[in-house]
Amino acid sequence: MLVSVPRLVIAGISGDSGKTLVSLALVAGFKKWGKSVAPFKKGPDYIDPAWLSAVAATPCRNLDTFLVPAEKVRSSFLKHARGFDLSIIEGNRGLFDGRNIEGQHSTAEIARLTASPILLIINCAKVTRTVAAIVKGCLEFEPGLKFAGVILNRVAGDRHNRIITDAIEGYCGLPVLGSIPNLKDKIVEIPERHMGLIPPSEFNAGASFEKNLAFLAENHINLERIYKAAQKAKPLELIQVDEKQAPSPQVRIGYFSDSVFTFYYPENLERLAQSGAELVPISSLKERKLPEIDALYIGGGFPETHARKLGENQILMQSVKSAADAGMPIYAECGGLIYLCRNLIWNENRFPMAGVFDLDLEMHPRPVGHGYTSLDVVAENPFFPVGTRINGHEFHYSGIKSNLPADAGCCRMETGVGLGNKRDGLVFRQTFAAYTHIHTDGEHGWANAFISRALAFARVRREVSIPNSHADNADRRRIENYCLN
Fold first, then answer.
1. 2-237 in CATH: which number?
2. CATH 3.40.50.300: does it fit domain 251-484?
3. pTM for this prediction
4. Which among 334, 410, 411, 483 is annotated as catalytic?
5. HSE of 187 in the Cβ direction (CA atoms, 13 Å)?
6. How far is residue 122's CA from residue 161's CA, in Å, rounded to a whole number?
7. Where are the domains of the chain?
8. Which DSSP state fits 384?
């Protein structure tokens, strides 16, 4: 079955080309036209997708062939692009930048996989005719790619724009479909900090932000020609898959959801719900104790920038520690790992955390771990069978304050940093915490294991008739033994 899905990949020559600005402006501009836009982001990322989700008013999906097998990436794209007037796929880094010299897992690979035309964004600061040489090189570097046109960013004025446009169209035969000036008034600037853009949950711009994005698109980008280019994308074959109806909720899984913890792939939460979980959002800043839940998921985020407020809510931290002591299944990624440790040290300040793990973490001025990770599970844990290979990613400025034993962590790092001793995955009773983030489309067994552990905990908790965060030593042993069997 062939389906028509108008689409474009927004690619750049490097980071800081203006891909996110253009992608957001296109979404806002087409929305103002009355078009529905499905947003996508190439690569492992949470912050850019959060902005795209906010402006598009629909979840942004990540497309990454390292985290997820290529056929599943393509299937996910088609599944979530159908029914929309247009799909925008924002690339990452430079168009051909991948994991190796062959450009594996690059934006170009996603463009080929989805047969999407490429809109190339060029940062034109302090350059003129050379831009045409760069564009010409992109056109000829890898066969099999289709380019829709070029958008110029950071253009100094009319003369600057004319020289570059004439050079690109004359030497490359590719249309220039937009020219964005140097935005000295910063009408659409998004503040940044150590990990890049701040998430939208911390940015109070109101309706004016989207309005300014739409203004930018309508005045500096040729939306009509870009839409026509997207419509020329060839139809794709859709393989129909019978989706099972989600069972009635069998367990309640809480997850931290607030301005601190925002790093969740939507598929991870959706897979838990489809597998029989009722998802319960929890504020790490406002809640005073865990609600009645059977398991807890703590994703990534920025606990370091909220450390003081988190530390002031010691009542919730004590509730989480009691739940971990009682054998409640807890899965934590990166920011969640920070939350579960004893202290976080940053700028000579020590902030108390939940203390599930008797370790201190320290923030550093540069990333400690950044990029794709490959892990082999080498020791027992609640969520992954021994022998499992996990592909994930990490981006953290924190690291363990003191030396860890060589065998600390249930996963051995093939690539990546993890805890810093070529290991990742701290385990305490039914709690697992790692710097590595995973995507459920690449780790199908994760959700089923989560549900299974939650069911086991729910059953034994009812047997011993205790609240979810309190148990005497005998009952704790009973819960732990029950969950392990």
1. 3.40.50.300
2. no
3. 0.92
4. 334
5. 15
6. 12
7. 2-237, 251-484
8. S
Q: What contacts 325, CB < 8 A, 6 or more positions away?
A: 429, 471, 476
Q: How far apart are the C-alpha atoms of 383 and 436, rounded to whole Å?
A: 14
CA quadruple 119, 123, 127, 133: dihedral, nearest 10: -30
In 3D space, the residue among 87, 80, 82 whose CA is nearest the CA of residue 6 turns out to be: 87
What's the burial of 173, exposed, middle or buried (CB within 10 Å: 0-12/13-18/19+)? exposed
Pairing mode, strands 147-155 and 118-123: parallel
Q: Do domains 2-237 and 251-484 have the same CATH topology?
A: yes
Residue 101 burial (10 A CB sphere; 0-12, 13-18, 19+): exposed
How far CA 456 is from CA of 53, 252, 462, 464, 484, in Å, comes to 35, 12, 10, 13, 9
Pick from 168, 156, 86: which is nearest to 121 by CA? 168
Digitized pLDDT (tens) for each residue of the chain, 485 residues in all: 888 999 999 999 998 899 999 999 999 999 999 999 999 999 999 999 999 999 999 999 999 999 999 999 999 999 999 999 999 999 999 999 999 999 999 999 999 999 999 999 999 999 999 999 999 999 999 989 999 999 999 999 999 999 999 999 999 999 999 999 987 555 677 777 665 678 887 777 667 889 999 999 999 999 999 999 999 999 998 876 666 677 788 999 999 999 999 999 999 999 999 999 999 999 999 999 999 999 999 999 999 999 999 999 999 999 999 999 999 999 999 999 999 999 999 988 999 999 999 999 999 999 999 999 999 999 999 999 999 999 999 999 999 987 787 778 999 999 999 999 899 999 999 999 999 999 999 998 999 999 999 999 999 877 765 444 445 566 556 655 654 54
483 is catalytic: no
Classify strands 411-415 and 369-377 as parallel, antiparallel or unpaired: antiparallel
